[in-house]
Give the backbone structure.
Amino acid sequence: MNEARPPRSWESGLRRRLYAIGVFLTVYLAIAYFALPVVWRTAIHEDPKLGGGPHLTHTADGHPGDPINIALVGSEADVIHAMIKVGWYPANPITLESSLRIAVDTVLRRPDDEAPVSPLYLFGRKEDLAFEQPVGDSPRQRHHVRFWRWDELLKGRAVWFGSATFDERVGLSYTTGQVTHHIGPNIDAERDRIVAELERAGEVERVIWKDHFHPELSGRNGGGDPWHTDGRLAGVILVPFTAATKAPTP
């Protein structure tokens, strides 16, 4: 009768390593995606200042989001036409397919002009429009902006509050450990960049600067990324789309 041979030492070591990796991933996912979000929701509930207000967006689970720094005045067609004209691409909604695609594109350093952006909330709902500009050959870096339509009108025209930021890199959230894009701290640079692009393209009737829009000139978003601002909101009154495309009279 053949005697059973004891498992090889390398096989035993491999099983131990795989078990340790499995335990680590389980603990990481439990902390990053369940425990820490609960802690943040509790902190926001106990200290309303953490939650911001109409000047600051929020994530779906109540984390502070990115600051509002620009507003466009015009119809939805005005906004879409103007943003596409100056080189911005509509961002796709997040799905399993789009999430897998951006992960693969990031690893392989392939550009994705319509990579998804994670939803943020203002006025009790997620963004109505989102645009982005890729940088280089990878979705790790990009300019992006989200817009929420306001419930009120300005002289009969819709107002779209926007949060424009620059994604510097992909990494782990400083607060929850979740995989996320980290934004650059200078949100004024992104605001000013969009204003300048629209002005150069002839899409602006007038720019109104609202001083002291932000009572706090610095802070951190839900991923722990620091941001700072001069406190001003850029209100851009767009040229109506029909007027912008009307052929000149001979």
User: Anything to note?
Assistant: DSSP finds six helices and 14 strands in the chain. The helical segments are 9-46, 48-51, 76-85, 96-108, 187-200, 241-245.
